[in-house]
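tool_log.txt
---
The assistant was asked to compare two proteins side by side. It first ran the structure predictor on the initial sequence, then on the second. Raw inputs and outputs are pasted verbatim so the downstream comparison step can read them without reformatting.
(1)
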Amino acid sequence: MTRHIVLLRGINLGSHNRIAMPELREALGGAGFEDVQTYLQSGNVVLLSDASPEQVARKCKRQIAERFGLDIAVVVRTRAELAKVVKRNPLGKVAKNPKRYQVSFLAGKLDPKVVRKLEAAAAPTERVVVDGREIYAWHPEGVARSKLWTALAGKGLGVTATARNWTTVTKLLELAE
């Protein structure tokens, strides 16, 4: 069995796409996943499965649609993949506030044109590193007025993506151990 980290995009934001975590754990456990744990209310799940990450994503997406009537994007990483994300940490020397340091997890790699647009959107104090299926972004002044964050949070990336701050990323790795 492999430990997987399931990241749901855009749930429990205000009154939109509401899913109670106990009900989500029950639904995923009922779908055959084992040792289902959630972290916070924002769609972070750690579970065990013999399936591939792609199969886990499809099964979770289908289960959420059937149980909650929601069409939610799902991105999955194995524990080993998440450990590599944390180990790489290309902005660790400059990103001192973990709540302003974001990792966007992508379902696939970005087109080089999109990477250039992201780099161009970064303010002089911000940093962005695209590494495989992750985008590391440092927003020292926060995301409220950040053009980079607007580009990352939107749907213009061309692939499914969902972001977590560094505190959440490292906590999910701890939960997956």
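(2)
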Amino acid sequence: MNRITLAGLIAVPALAALSVQRPRESSTCQSDIVSSTVVSTFCGHREGDTEILDLLILWRATPGWFHNTATGRNGSSGSSVFGATKGIVSQSTDYGDATIAFEANFDTRTATVAHSTITLEGINTIVVDDVRGDWRITSTRRTEPGLPLVGDWNLALATLSRDFVRDLRCEIPMPVPPPIRQVRVVTVCEKLKQRQQR
């Protein structure tokens, strides 16, 4: 009769645990001013030592459209559903008298933007123009999704994607903000210029 050692009994479940893959993290989203004309919404999740881009929405309008107006209205609202899913995110953000809003379902791989539902199979980037008027989706494409885990993800995208830099329209200067207090924003365009001057 074979003898089973205590070490053997411990080793078997330990090896089984190592073979089980961890579930994918849920996606989270954040929006940032990245140029004089663009606010970027970045949705991603972590895989090991890499940040994976799930959805990038570039909201564009006239220079400085995101500055607070005399109303001082600024803020955001939204909801996220996680758990055993990749995530369902619904967000609405006010920039002065303009509002950006979207819903992304990373389980069904769909996003609803500007009253249009887009399938995210082979697509992870959406460009929306005329944000202060009648929203128009003017471009969709795939952007290389693997990014450094830490740092400015929008800046990392700018170093990897010529299309992203083109969409920022860095040649358009930032206008002087209205005479109510504004938070100083260092845009991706400014960071790229600083790198070139080194």
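---
observation on (2): The longest helix spans residues 6-19. The chain is about 20% helix and 35% strand.
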